[in-house]
UniProtKB/TrEMBL annotation:
Gene Ontology annotations for the cellular component aspect, listed alphabetically: clathrin adaptor complex; endomembrane system
Keywords, sorted A to Z: Membrane, Protein transport, Transport
Organism superkingdom: Eukaryota
Residue stretches making up the MHD domain: 93-320
One Pfam family hit: Adap_comp_sub
Protein name: MHD domain-containing protein
InterPro entries for the chain: Adaptor_comp_med_subunit, AP2_Mu_C_sf, Clathrin_mu, Clathrin_mu_CS, Longin-like_dom_sf, MHD
Amino acid sequence: MCMLYLHQDYFGVCSEPVIKDNVVVVYEVLEEMLDNGFPLATESNILKELIKPPTILRTVVNTITGSTNVGDQLPTGQLSVVPWRRTGVKYTNNEAYFDVIEEIDAIIDKSGSTVTAEIQGVVDACVKLTGMPDLTLSFMNPRLLDDVSFHPCVRFKRWESERILSFIPPDGNFRLLSYHVSAQNLVAIPVYVKHNISFRDSSSLGRFEITVGPKQTMGKTIEGVIVISQMPKGVLNMSLTPSQGTHTFDPVTKMLSWDVGKINPQKLPSLKGTMSLQAGASKPDENPTINLQFKIQQLAISGKTQSESSGYVWRKVQTL
C-alpha cells in the first residue's frame, strides 16, 4: 500500500505502462525506501528530495548530460528528530486539508436487513504550512475506531490516554491514519434496492424490475451508482429500459451492469423489462445476487465526526 501510494504521488497513477516508462526512477525510489529489505525512508517529501520526480524537461536534460534524478544533498529532515518533515519549509499561504474516505462493504438480505457490514476508512492529508507546525485533531466519538494504524508522526501515547491526534505533520500529501469500524457500530445503510424478478414455468419469458433509492443520507446526494448482477445461466438475453443511465448485458457471462449515475430522490431510477429464457431449462433462481457501488460526498457513514483545534479545515468527507 505504501509503495502504491508513493508511485501515485510520483507519477499520478500506478500502472504497468507507467512503471515501464519510468523503470529507472522506480528502482531509484526502491533503493532509497529499503535497506536490506527493511523499510527505511517512506515519506514522500523526503524521497522527492532524494529522487527528483520525473518531468519532460528533467528527462531531456538527463539524456543530454548523462545525469540522474538522484539528488546531490541529503535532505535536512533526515538528520532531525522528525525525519518525516524537511526543515526550512516556507509558504506564502498556509493551509492544511484533510480528506476522510470510508468504504463500506455490506451484505443486505432481500427484506432489506443488514446481514453483515464493515467499514474501512482513511484520513488523507495535504499540509502546506511554514516552519514546524504542531497540529491537534479530535473526534467526537473516537471509540468507534478499531484497528487504527497511524502515520509515524502521530504521538501514540496521547492517543492512548486522551483519544486525541497530536502530531507534527510531513510536508505535502500523506496518509494520517487508517481505521476499521465493526458491524455493531454501523448506522443504517444509506441506499436501498427493490427488485422484482420473476419467471413463469410455462413461459420462455421472465420479468425484471429493479429500483434504487436513498435512505437516511442526511440530505446528501448519492453519486456514481453502479448496479451489477450475475443473472442465472438460463437467461439468454434481456430487453430492458432504464429510466436513467445506461446498461449492458453480456449473454456469455450473464453479467448485467447498470450505470445509474446520480440519484434524484424526487424521481427514483429504475430498470425494467423482460428476459428471454432457455427453452426446456429449469426455473432459474428469482433472487440473484445484486452488487451496488455508490459514492456520497460529505457523509461519514460510521457516524464519526471530527473537530480541529489548530485553525484548519476538513476538505472532504466521502463514503464509497
